[in-house]
Design brief:
The structure is a single chain. By secondary structure, the protein is an alpha/beta fold. It is built from 11 helices and 21 strands. The protein has 2 domains: 206 residues, Alanine racemase (TIM Barrel), CATH 3.20.20; 133 residues, Lyase, Ornithine Decarboxylase, Chain A, domain 1.
Length: 366
């Protein structure tokens, strides 16, 4: 039989999380962000669950082509815009909308020969200091774009750095609103964190919200918000070991038993995308019961404390189910953010790091 590890994508949970975003911002349209191959889930696998969105937002042209090949005829937005002049030709052919965040992209548009003007989203650097025009330069960039025959409608957008933290959004939204006052066109300001935490703030009027991580079962402000899990990583026990006080576990002997202890060995490791820096105490479900890792994560195996679930084991070569994150077959849930916090990272990284060798199945909607 194949190695028992597998990932499952939950279509109904994707649909549910999208509807939750709509309920938070009923007057706005929703971009479903599917960059990074839909945050590691696979664009083709999430499409059915997210096709109720008003548009798809992503980064590169190959991903845009995949969405079009799935039959999507609605808006697609390139969040970082184009990278070279010939990209604009594909934008014209595929009907892509694209961000403009620098003078060089305006130069490319000015030199582009097209019979169909482009829909663009002019990005402001309101304090994130990654991409975009500063507030002082923003209106001049808008005027230059507006004078180009290659440009149709201009929308305005920015991106928040602290929507999920104590600093909040005030410093950025005030700069954005001041610089865009009276400019025509649709607005897109809220990412997942702003949509979850600040949707009642009247300053955040948005025609489009960009729903990313919230669609995929993770939240920037976990545990305050916790969407339904859309990816489950599960495996089974391969073996059971019985330790005595003083026995150690795994490479580097990072864990030492202080009393008699039963541990299980499960088929998952860092070669499957599970973080090597997860250590003793990282939560895991065994047979739907919450327990912990003990010792260091290996390339192909982890070791788990079976104290809360001593009935777990391996019978006739069929081991007890182990859920690394997501939903166990019992219905118990281990949020991916719980695991990420123990690993000192974020849920985004875990789902994006799923290794190619892990088989992936799709659990369709009822």
């Amino acid at each position: 039989m194949p190695r028992p590890i597998a990932a499952t994508i939950h279509t109904a949970a994707l649909h549910h999380n999208l509807q939750r975003v709509r309920q938070s911002v009923p007057d706005a349209k929703v971009w479903a962000v599917v960059k990074a191959n839909a945050y590691g889930h696979g664009i083709e696998r999430v499409f059915e669950g997210l096709r109720g969105a008003d548009g798809f937002a992503l980064l590169d042209l190959a991903e845009a082509e995949r969405v079009r090949h799935l039959g999507w005829r609605g808006p697609i937005l390139l969040l970082e815009g184009v990278f070279e002049p010939r990209d604009l030709e594909l934008c014209s052919r595929l009907g892509l909308w694209h961000a403009v965040h620098c003078d060089e992209q305006i130069d490319m548009l000015a030199a582009h020969k097209t019979q169909v003007p482009h829909r663009v989203f002019l990005k402001m650097n309101s304090g994130m200091n990654r991409l975009g025009f500063t507030p002082a330069r923003y209106r001049a960039a808008w005027a230059r774009l507006g004078a180009l025959p290659q440009v149709d409608e201009i929308s305005v957008m920015t991106h928040f750095s602290d929507a999920d933290g104590p600093r909040g959004i005030a410093h950025q939204i005030e700069a954005f609103n001041a610089a865009t006052q009276d400019l025509p066109g649709e607005r897109s300001v809220s990412n997942s964190a702003a949509t979850l935490r600040h949707h009642t703030d009247a300053r955040l009027r948005s025609d489009w919200v960009r729903a990313g991580i919230v669609l995929y079962g993770s939240a920037p402000d976990f545990p305050e918000n916790s969407p339904q899990p859309t990816m489950t990583l599960s495996t089974r026990l391969l073996a059971v070991q019985h330790l005595q006080p003083g026995d150690t576990v795994g490479y580097g002997s990072r864990f030492t038993a202080t009393e008699p202890l039963t541990i299980g060995i499960a088929a998952c490791g860092y070669a499957d995308g599970y973080p090597r820096h997860c250590d003793t105490g990282t939560p895991v479900l065994v047979g739907g019961v919450r327990t912990r890792l003990v010792g260091r994560v290996s390339m192909d195996m982890v070791t788990v404390d079976l104290t809360p679930v001593l009935a777990a084991g391996v019978a006739a070569g069929f081991g007890t189910e182990v859920t690394l994150w997501g939903r166990a077959s019992t219905g118990a849930v281990l949020p991916i953010d719980d695991v990420a916090q123990a690993a000192g990272t974020v849920g985004y990284e875990l789902m994006c790091a799923l290794a190619q060798r892990v088989p992936v199945a799709v659990d369709g909607m009822d």
